[in-house]
Write a structure and sequence with these properties.
The structure is a single chain. The chain has a 9-stranded mixed beta sheet, with helices on both faces. It has 241 residues and is of the alpha/beta class. Helix 5 links the parallel strand 8 and strand 9.
Protein backbone atom coordinates (compact mmCIF):
# COMPACT_ATOMS: atom_id res chain seq x y z
CA UNK A 1 0.00 0.00 0.00
CA UNK A 2 1.20 3.54 -0.55
CA UNK A 3 2.02 5.76 2.35
CA UNK A 4 -0.22 8.78 2.55
CA UNK A 5 -0.15 11.83 4.74
CA UNK A 6 -1.71 15.23 5.07
CA UNK A 7 1.10 17.59 6.01
CA UNK A 8 0.17 20.49 8.26
CA UNK A 9 -0.26 23.58 6.10
CA UNK A 10 -2.44 26.69 5.77
CA UNK A 11 -6.13 25.99 5.33
CA UNK A 12 -6.12 26.70 1.59
CA UNK A 13 -3.11 24.49 0.95
CA UNK A 14 -3.17 20.71 1.18
CA UNK A 15 -0.14 18.50 0.75
CA UNK A 16 -0.87 14.87 0.07
CA UNK A 17 2.13 12.62 -0.32
CA UNK A 18 1.75 9.26 -2.02
CA UNK A 19 4.81 7.00 -2.12
CA UNK A 20 4.44 4.19 -4.67
CA UNK A 21 6.04 0.89 -3.72
CA UNK A 22 6.82 -1.60 -6.46
CA UNK A 23 5.12 -4.83 -5.21
CA UNK A 24 1.76 -3.11 -4.89
CA UNK A 25 1.79 -0.59 -7.72
CA UNK A 26 -1.60 -1.49 -9.19
CA UNK A 27 -3.33 -1.42 -5.81
CA UNK A 28 -1.37 1.68 -4.87
CA UNK A 29 -2.68 3.63 -7.84
CA UNK A 30 -6.30 2.79 -7.07
CA UNK A 31 -5.88 3.46 -3.37
CA UNK A 32 -4.07 6.71 -4.05
CA UNK A 33 -6.90 8.03 -6.19
CA UNK A 34 -9.45 7.14 -3.52
CA UNK A 35 -7.39 8.76 -0.80
CA UNK A 36 -6.58 11.86 -2.79
CA UNK A 37 -10.22 12.55 -3.57
CA UNK A 38 -11.86 11.13 -0.48
CA UNK A 39 -10.20 12.77 2.51
CA UNK A 40 -9.43 16.41 2.09
CA UNK A 41 -9.85 19.57 4.07
CA UNK A 42 -9.18 21.53 0.89
CA UNK A 43 -10.58 21.66 -2.62
CA UNK A 44 -12.28 18.59 -4.07
CA UNK A 45 -10.37 18.03 -7.30
CA UNK A 46 -13.14 15.82 -8.69
CA UNK A 47 -15.14 19.00 -9.27
CA UNK A 48 -14.36 21.16 -12.31
CA UNK A 49 -12.98 24.64 -11.78
CA UNK A 50 -12.18 27.59 -13.99
CA UNK A 51 -9.04 27.54 -16.09
CA UNK A 52 -6.29 29.23 -14.05
CA UNK A 53 -5.13 32.70 -15.00
CA UNK A 54 -2.17 34.63 -13.71
CA UNK A 55 -2.57 37.17 -10.95
CA UNK A 56 -0.29 40.11 -11.77
CA UNK A 57 1.97 40.67 -14.76
CA UNK A 58 5.47 39.78 -15.86
CA UNK A 59 8.13 42.44 -15.42
CA UNK A 60 10.34 43.91 -18.11
CA UNK A 61 12.98 41.52 -19.36
CA UNK A 62 11.21 38.23 -18.82
CA UNK A 63 10.94 37.85 -22.60
CA UNK A 64 11.09 40.23 -25.54
CA UNK A 65 7.47 41.13 -26.37
CA UNK A 66 8.48 42.03 -29.93
CA UNK A 67 9.97 38.57 -30.50
CA UNK A 68 8.02 35.91 -28.59
CA UNK A 69 10.06 32.75 -27.93
CA UNK A 70 9.73 29.97 -30.48
CA UNK A 71 9.07 26.35 -29.44
CA UNK A 72 12.04 24.77 -27.63
CA UNK A 73 13.75 28.15 -27.38
CA UNK A 74 15.99 28.97 -24.43
CA UNK A 75 15.12 32.26 -22.74
CA UNK A 76 17.19 34.09 -20.13
CA UNK A 77 14.73 36.16 -18.10
CA UNK A 78 15.90 39.15 -16.13
CA UNK A 79 16.25 38.12 -12.46
CA UNK A 80 13.10 38.96 -10.54
CA UNK A 81 11.04 39.72 -13.66
CA UNK A 82 8.67 36.95 -12.57
CA UNK A 83 8.06 38.29 -9.05
CA UNK A 84 4.87 40.14 -9.97
CA UNK A 85 3.10 36.99 -11.15
CA UNK A 86 1.17 34.75 -8.78
CA UNK A 87 -1.06 31.72 -9.31
CA UNK A 88 -4.76 32.07 -8.52
CA UNK A 89 -5.86 30.83 -5.11
CA UNK A 90 -6.49 27.08 -5.20
CA UNK A 91 -4.19 26.46 -8.18
CA UNK A 92 -4.05 22.67 -8.47
CA UNK A 93 -0.49 21.34 -8.64
CA UNK A 94 0.93 17.83 -8.38
CA UNK A 95 4.61 17.57 -7.53
CA UNK A 96 6.13 14.34 -8.85
CA UNK A 97 9.48 13.59 -7.28
CA UNK A 98 12.09 10.84 -7.42
CA UNK A 99 15.39 10.57 -5.59
CA UNK A 100 16.72 11.59 -2.19
CA UNK A 101 19.82 13.47 -3.32
CA UNK A 102 20.41 16.96 -1.98
CA UNK A 103 19.49 18.79 -5.22
CA UNK A 104 16.14 16.99 -5.40
CA UNK A 105 15.42 17.64 -1.73
CA UNK A 106 16.17 21.33 -2.23
CA UNK A 107 13.85 21.51 -5.24
CA UNK A 108 11.05 19.77 -3.33
CA UNK A 109 11.44 22.13 -0.39
CA UNK A 110 11.28 25.12 -2.75
CA UNK A 111 8.08 23.88 -4.40
CA UNK A 112 6.43 23.28 -1.04
CA UNK A 113 7.45 26.70 0.27
CA UNK A 114 6.07 28.34 -2.89
CA UNK A 115 2.80 26.42 -2.47
CA UNK A 116 2.44 27.59 1.15
CA UNK A 117 3.13 31.20 0.30
CA UNK A 118 0.91 31.29 -2.78
CA UNK A 119 -1.93 29.21 -1.27
CA UNK A 120 -1.55 26.58 -3.96
CA UNK A 121 -3.38 23.27 -3.51
CA UNK A 122 -0.35 20.96 -3.72
CA UNK A 123 -0.30 17.17 -3.80
CA UNK A 124 2.85 15.09 -4.04
CA UNK A 125 3.53 11.71 -5.65
CA UNK A 126 6.92 10.24 -4.71
CA UNK A 127 8.39 7.38 -6.76
CA UNK A 128 10.52 5.27 -4.42
CA UNK A 129 11.74 2.65 -6.91
CA UNK A 130 12.73 2.70 -10.60
CA UNK A 131 9.66 0.70 -11.58
CA UNK A 132 7.46 3.40 -10.01
CA UNK A 133 8.63 6.24 -12.26
CA UNK A 134 6.05 5.87 -15.03
CA UNK A 135 3.20 4.98 -12.63
CA UNK A 136 3.97 8.09 -10.57
CA UNK A 137 3.45 10.31 -13.61
CA UNK A 138 0.30 8.40 -14.55
CA UNK A 139 -1.03 8.92 -11.04
CA UNK A 140 -0.38 12.65 -11.25
CA UNK A 141 -2.35 12.87 -14.50
CA UNK A 142 -5.30 10.97 -13.05
CA UNK A 143 -5.64 13.63 -10.35
CA UNK A 144 -6.47 16.22 -13.01
CA UNK A 145 -4.16 19.05 -11.90
CA UNK A 146 -3.64 22.42 -13.53
CA UNK A 147 0.10 21.76 -13.50
CA UNK A 148 2.44 18.80 -12.95
CA UNK A 149 5.84 19.80 -11.54
CA UNK A 150 8.74 17.36 -11.85
CA UNK A 151 11.74 17.28 -9.49
CA UNK A 152 14.44 14.63 -9.90
CA UNK A 153 16.57 13.58 -12.86
CA UNK A 154 15.20 10.03 -12.90
CA UNK A 155 11.84 11.39 -14.08
CA UNK A 156 13.16 12.98 -17.29
CA UNK A 157 12.98 9.94 -19.58
CA UNK A 158 9.54 8.85 -18.27
CA UNK A 159 8.28 12.41 -18.82
CA UNK A 160 9.62 12.36 -22.37
CA UNK A 161 7.57 9.21 -22.93
CA UNK A 162 4.33 10.42 -21.33
CA UNK A 163 4.08 14.15 -22.06
CA UNK A 164 3.61 13.97 -25.87
CA UNK A 165 0.50 11.84 -25.32
CA UNK A 166 -1.13 14.37 -22.95
CA UNK A 167 -0.79 17.66 -24.80
CA UNK A 168 -3.59 19.33 -22.85
CA UNK A 169 -1.69 18.82 -19.58
CA UNK A 170 0.93 21.39 -18.60
CA UNK A 171 4.22 20.10 -17.19
CA UNK A 172 6.99 22.08 -15.50
CA UNK A 173 10.45 20.56 -15.04
CA UNK A 174 12.68 22.27 -12.47
CA UNK A 175 16.44 21.70 -12.43
CA UNK A 176 16.53 19.66 -15.66
CA UNK A 177 14.96 19.61 -19.13
CA UNK A 178 13.68 17.29 -21.84
CA UNK A 179 15.84 16.86 -24.93
CA UNK A 180 12.86 17.35 -27.28
CA UNK A 181 9.96 18.89 -25.34
CA UNK A 182 6.48 19.30 -26.72
CA UNK A 183 4.62 22.61 -26.33
CA UNK A 184 3.16 21.53 -22.98
CA UNK A 185 6.53 20.98 -21.26
CA UNK A 186 8.34 23.99 -19.81
CA UNK A 187 11.69 23.72 -18.04
CA UNK A 188 13.82 25.87 -15.75
CA UNK A 189 17.50 25.06 -15.92
CA UNK A 190 21.03 26.43 -15.47
CA UNK A 191 24.60 25.38 -16.20
CA UNK A 192 25.00 23.43 -12.98
CA UNK A 193 21.89 21.38 -13.72
CA UNK A 194 20.92 20.79 -17.40
CA UNK A 195 20.35 17.01 -17.27
CA UNK A 196 18.45 16.02 -20.44
CA UNK A 197 18.05 12.23 -20.24
CA UNK A 198 17.82 10.02 -23.33
CA UNK A 199 21.16 8.40 -22.56
CA UNK A 200 22.99 11.70 -22.92
CA UNK A 201 24.52 11.35 -19.48
CA UNK A 202 25.16 14.07 -16.95
CA UNK A 203 26.29 17.44 -18.23
CA UNK A 204 29.99 18.14 -17.77
CA UNK A 205 28.99 21.33 -15.95
CA UNK A 206 26.71 19.53 -13.47
CA UNK A 207 27.25 20.91 -9.99
CA UNK A 208 25.04 19.81 -7.06
CA UNK A 209 26.10 22.94 -5.18
CA UNK A 210 24.34 25.06 -7.82
CA UNK A 211 20.98 23.85 -6.47
CA UNK A 212 20.82 26.54 -3.83
CA UNK A 213 17.63 27.31 -1.95
CA UNK A 214 17.48 30.74 -3.62
CA UNK A 215 17.91 29.39 -7.16
CA UNK A 216 15.41 26.58 -6.64
CA UNK A 217 12.89 29.07 -5.25
CA UNK A 218 13.43 31.25 -8.32
CA UNK A 219 13.03 28.21 -10.58
CA UNK A 220 9.53 27.31 -9.38
CA UNK A 221 8.39 30.94 -9.39
CA UNK A 222 9.79 31.71 -12.83
CA UNK A 223 8.49 28.46 -14.28
CA UNK A 224 5.00 28.88 -12.89
CA UNK A 225 4.92 32.48 -14.12
CA UNK A 226 5.80 31.31 -17.64
CA UNK A 227 3.12 28.61 -17.65
CA UNK A 228 0.46 30.98 -16.31
CA UNK A 229 1.32 33.40 -19.11
CA UNK A 230 1.17 30.69 -21.82
CA UNK A 231 4.93 30.87 -22.42
CA UNK A 232 5.28 27.11 -22.60
CA UNK A 233 7.45 24.58 -24.41
CA UNK A 234 10.56 26.66 -23.68
CA UNK A 235 13.56 26.53 -21.35
CA UNK A 236 14.12 29.34 -18.85
CA UNK A 237 17.84 29.71 -18.15
CA UNK A 238 18.75 31.00 -14.68
CA UNK A 239 22.54 31.20 -14.78
CA UNK A 240 22.44 34.85 -13.71
CA UNK A 241 20.35 34.27 -10.61
Amino acid sequence: MPTYEDVEAPAATTWRTIALRTPFRAAALAAAVALATGCSSGDDWSRPHASPTAVGTLGAGFTDPSAPPTPEATVTPRPGSWNGVHPPKGYRVVLVTAGDDRPTRTLVAAVRSWARTERVDLRTVAAEHPADLLPSITESLEMGPDLVVSAGNDLIDPLATVSPHHLSQQFLVVGAELAEPTHNVTAVDWSGASFRGEGLGMSSTYDPASFTAARCAAAIRAGAAAVLNDLTGIVLWLDDH
